[in-house]
Amino acid sequence: MLEDIAWYRHAEDAETASFWRMARKLPSLLRQAFATAWAASPAWTATAVGLNVVAGVATTTALLAVSDVTGTLFAAPPTWERVLAASPSLVLLAAATAARAGLGIGAGFAQQRLNPLVLNRTEREFYQLITDVPRAAFDDDAFADRLKAAKDRGSRAVVDLVGDVVDLVTAAVTVAAVAVALAVIEPVLIPMLFAAALPTGWAAVRSARLMYVSNRSRVSRRRRLWMVEFLMDNRWTADDLRYHEAGPWLRGQHQAMVDAETQADFEVIRSQTVTRAVGQVISGAAVAAVYGVLLWLLATGTVPLAVAAAAVVALGQGSVAMSNLLIAVNTVYEDGLYAADRHEFDAIAAERIAAQPHLTALSATEQDPLPVPEVIELVDVSFRYPGKDADAVTGVSLAIRRGETTALVGENGSGKTTVAKLLSGLYTPTSGQILWDGVDIALIDPARWRCHVAVIAQQVQRWPFTAELSVRLGRSHAPADRDRLVAAARDAGALDLIEGFEHGWNQLLDAEYRSGTDLSGGQWQRLSSARGLYRDYDGLLVADEPSAALDARAEAALFDTLRARAGRAATVLISHRLQGVVHADQIAVLEEGKLIELGPHTDLVAAGGAYAELWGLQARSYATE
Ligand SMILES: Nc1ncnc2c1ncn2[C@@H]1O[C@H](COP(=O)(O)OP(=O)(O)OP(=O)(O)O)[C@@H](O)[C@H]1O
């Protein structure tokens, strides 16, 4: 369970890739990175690439100028006349060197400007997709894997890839520039460029791989380590850790893993050092061979001394650029594999967004919001959570009328919250329809009807905002309405609480920040109700166990608030405390996802079925208390 799927997905590929396999993938990766960079900023992309190319021209110019200078000076013993004769080339050399340095700085600046722009864009796209994707996606383990892969390394790799590609272009341009200069100076020297650079390049690539393979073998342990660290350093487990004196055990686990990590670090450092040493030895031998060949060429008169001197300078620069190029190819390939995770996630999320019934419906041309519905009908509605082999809700048919309260009751897991989620549009029925005054809402844009739905959710969300924002989140896109804020807080029993805060409505509700505070479970629930009530404009209000954490007084006040909607708005109330639902116009009893009884309290009690049994149990337990 602790395996990191996201990491492993491409590990095999990256570990075993041959250089040629990497090279074959390069064009598509270059295209991809270029497209990403261009989309983020055409101007900075063009500047970064353009300056690098011009810097390459300056490199060639500088090397040819070196050749000219050495040619003039070494043709015979140098005299002042020869130095003067070489001065135009010396000036050119100085200018080209300065230009190359300046262009390098400019290219670096352009690349650094580009990176945050690419990051900005990829982040924006990611959070747009993730907040637009239908809710059901979050119940799908395959989607969760893709999401994790994209988030863990994928998004970062998309950004890194752009930088890697610029590095690759820089190295390639420098190698090409040196090769062009050598071709002009003495073509026979070109192969030497590779001979000297390949061993160090190989060592650098192998070193990176060793680190990669080490990381890969340690990923399960690291995930466990992160989990144990989180369990020790976050406030949500801080209480339980101390209640159960679990600290020493967790610390022991942590220390064992940290020790193992240290050992693994030692291992990888040792093998990297050996690899580098081998690379240096071979490279040293190769350099010696190159100089040997140069000397031989000099001795045989194939190459004059002046050309050999220029060649030494060119080969020095060329070998650095060559090993940079090899490293860049490796990095582009590796980051390219992870960037593919992000692209894959984007495609899957976009596909899920596009597959929503309202987007495929032929009739989805109307834009105006629907009117507040007179009747909402569930027609033979079934729903199965993704990846499950049984329905959570099966064949439920039910009419919810404006002005009435419908209560949903039933045992744990009987499907009440699922019905509430279907009603509020979080999920689309697997089969059956939800009709608003006869219109199937699955086929129209949720923006046209969701404005009429307010929810007080069973799972109380502790938004770490100010009290005002926490309530206003119910309609965050609209300007704050002070009167409505006060009314919603009062109706939810949260007004005294908020006004009693040190900073009133501006009180930050997060104890992890300065002057922030935490609340009790019931206080959080009151705020959650206030949020739902603030959103509500007499459309459909779904209240799912809104009083589970409330004291008796607050519960009675909240039920009064809900009851006050009678005659003007539709209310769906889920509650295990049947005292709170006796006034409902109709009570729907669910059992294993099916609607088994429906009617007002008195009828259901008289019928002597499941509801009557539950009612009897609760009445008896109150009577004995
Ligand atoms: N996101 C989910 N993914 C998979 N199965 C789920 C999910 N949410 C709920 N279920 C399953 O669907 C069934 C109905 O759950 P639901 O939350 O609707 O029950 P409930 O009647 O509201 O229960 P409770 O009284 O405990 O709140 C249960 O078997 C539950 O395990």
From TrEMBL:
Keywords: ATP-binding, Membrane, Nucleotide-binding, Transmembrane, Transmembrane helix. One of its GO terms (molecular function) is ATP binding. Gene3D superfamilies: ABC transporter type 1, transmembrane domain, P-loop containing nucleotide triphosphate hydrolases. It is a multi-pass membrane protein. Residues 376-617 form the ABC transporter domain. Residues 46-334 form the ABC transmembrane type-1 domain. The lineage of its organism: Bacteria, Bacillati, Actinomycetota, Actinomycetes, Glycomycetales. It is found in: Cell membrane. The chain crosses the membrane at residues 161-185, 191-212, 277-299, 305-327. InterPro entries: AAA+_ATPase (IPR003593), ABC1_TM_dom (IPR011527), ABC1_TM_sf (IPR036640), ABC_transporter-like_ATP-bd (IPR003439), P-loop_NTPase (IPR027417), Type_1_exporter (IPR039421). This is ABC transporter ATP-binding protein.
